[in-house]
Amino acid sequence: MESILFVLTPFQYEKGNRECSCYQTIRFLYGDLLHVMGDPFYVENLGWYIGVYRNDDSPFYMSAHFIDDLYEKGVLYTKMDLTLAINFHQYKLDQSLDDKNKQHFISHKTKLDQFTALHPEYTIVEKR
């Protein structure tokens, strides 16, 4: 089963080690999708790895520990995380309107826009 993680904060991943010809730095930007596919596997002396790919790029293996760290830091979000964040900031936005608190309104509106731009069900599609 494939799952998708949404990139909220830019980061980079160093694939392979520097002495290897396979070494590559892969940059992830806000809005990129990290597709996680397959089951993780263990590499002796290195730890757990799992197959992933960015957007529509070629697949590669990424450290499961690295993915977990990014998720815990709030760099990567699941679709459910985005939905919860949208609900929270919409609630806080409504609350700031009731309280007539301009500073909180601007803060939560900025966050709300950031999360809705990433969420696939909230993305605005231009009609041509």
Explain the overall architecture.
This protein has 128 residues and is of the alpha+beta class. The chain folds into two domains: 3-77, SH3 type barrels (Roll); 79-118. It has helices at 64-72, 79-99, 102-118; strands spanning 3-7, 11-15, 24-28, 33-43, 47-54, 60-63, 76-77. The strands form two sheets. The protein has a five-stranded antiparallel sheet with strand order 6-5-4-1-7. β2 (11-15) and β3 form a beta hairpin. The two termini are 35 Å apart. The mean pLDDT is 91.
Quick synopsis:
The protein is α+β, with helices and mostly antiparallel strands and 128 residues long. The protein has helices spanning 64-72, 79-99, 102-118, and strands spanning 3-7, 11-15, 24-28, 33-43, 47-54, 60-63, 76-77.
For this structure, the quaternary state is single chain
The number of E-state strands comes to 7
Low-confidence stretches: none
Helix-strand pattern, N to C? EEEEEEHEHH
Instruction: Give the strand order of the largest sheet, numbering strands 1, 2, ... along the chain.
Output: 6-5-4-1-7
The residue-averaged pLDDT reads 91
The CATH class of the largest domain is Mainly Beta
Number of domains: 2
Principal-axis shape: elongated
Measured as a percent range, the helix fraction is 25-40%
Q: In whole angstroms, how far apart are the ends?
A: 35 Å
CATH architecture of the largest domain: Roll
Number of helices: 3
Report on the biggest sheet: 5 strands, antiparallel
Question: What share of the residues does DSSP label as strand, in percent?
Answer: 25-35%
The CATH topology of the largest domain turns out to be SH3 type barrels
Radius of gyration (Å): 18 Å
